[in-house]
Amino acid sequence: MERAERIDGLIRKGNVVLPESTRYGADVRLRNGRIAEIGEALPCLEGETVMEAEGAWVFPGFLDLHVHGGDGAGVSDGDPRSLARMCAFHARHGTTGLLLTTSTLPDERLTEALEAAQAYASSEDGSMGAEALGVHLEGPFLSEAYRGAQNPEWLQAPCVEKARRWMKASGDRIRLVTLAPELPGAQEVITFFREKGAVVSAGHSGADYDGMEQALRKGVTHSTHFYNGMPGFHHRQPGIAASVWLNDEVSAELILDLQHVHPAAAQVLLRCKGLNRVCLITDAVHTAGLPDGEYWQASGRKLTVREGTVRLESGELAGSLLTMDRAVRHAVQVLGLAPHEAARLASLTPAEIIGEERERGSLSPGKRADLVLLDANYDVLLTLREGVPVYRKSD
Asked: How many structural domains is the chain composed of?
């Protein structure tokens, strides 16, 4: 696949979704891969391209901090070609940047997956599709009791030496780490990753309220796929849920596929945390985008895709088939959020969580021209990465 030409010009008369509101019938000028200007009836300058967008939504490109795969390819394959395929798939659904998310694997295979992520990010293929912004290391430092679809055979206690080895294998690209903070050795690993600049998240964890409070004091600032892979709230055992709800500095991920989390529970999270501390994620696995049928995990276990869900033979959910455009649609049409509020969850908040908000996450002059055009039903028409089309509906 050849890299498309960068667009320098106007996106005209779109419904431009800004951080605090939507400007209807506005123009966006793109120049040298950046947003140069936003306004009404901007003049077309000599040599500029004009793209008519009347009636379309113009969103900032979506950022997915937790995504394992798509279109039959995944991070656990340990193959840069698989990463190119999954990034192209998610670009078709409006994602312009993502964290390549691992799952629990044997040590050698996890190392291979991280080396493949490093190779892909520095390759020419890495300039196409959604941009690999780094790695989200999910596993193997997880609780067996709350492992979800993670393979229990390969779970292990947190170990600084292995954390150091895997950080090196990734080329220092690990930017987010999910672990169970109650496990022995977790504190040393939290400290290591924090010193390396990574965000540390509590996930697949059975920590109680006091344990989670202690973890927050020692460097945990995020919660992986909130409500999933953790104990439920109980008024005498409030657990992780209450700790995250009550601590303003902690952010939380939300899988808004309407399968993992009931809309009412999603509303509770948003009421407690606010839009600036919740990010939409997909948790998509390699079967996202594939037809109903039976498939195999990289771990060797069978998955069944049916009617919008993917499950293990036990019936447990095994990741999701979600894409970010569908998550945004659900935020607007099911939760009743305004478009700019949905954009907050899908773009700006995740950018802030990993420290990318200066460059991406909102439509503002000077930022990268990472945009997605959606039709009235929130289906993707065009995805731009630094002004370069990485997906057109007609492609």
From this structure: 2
Does residue 27 carry a catalytic annotation? Answer: no
Contact yes or no for 166/175 (Cβ under 8 A): no
Kindly report, residue by residue over 231-252, the tens digit of the pLDDT. Answer: 999 999 999 999 999 999 999 9
Structural domain boundaries, residue 17: 9-59+363-392
**What does the pLDDT look like over 374-386, one tens digit per residue?**
999 999 999 999 9
Domain-embedded: residue 2:
no
Binding residue positions: 138, 149, 204, 225, 228-229, 236, 260, 317-319
Residue 221, classified by CB atoms within 10 Å of its CB into exposed (0-12), middle (13-18) or buried (19+), is: middle
**pTM for the full model?**
0.97
Cα separation, 322 vs 284, whole angstroms: 6
Task: Name residue 84's amino acid.
Answer: A
Question: Over 80: is that where the pLDDT of 157 sits?
Answer: yes
Residues 99 and 148 in one domain: yes
Catalytic residue among 77, 125, 257, 283: 283
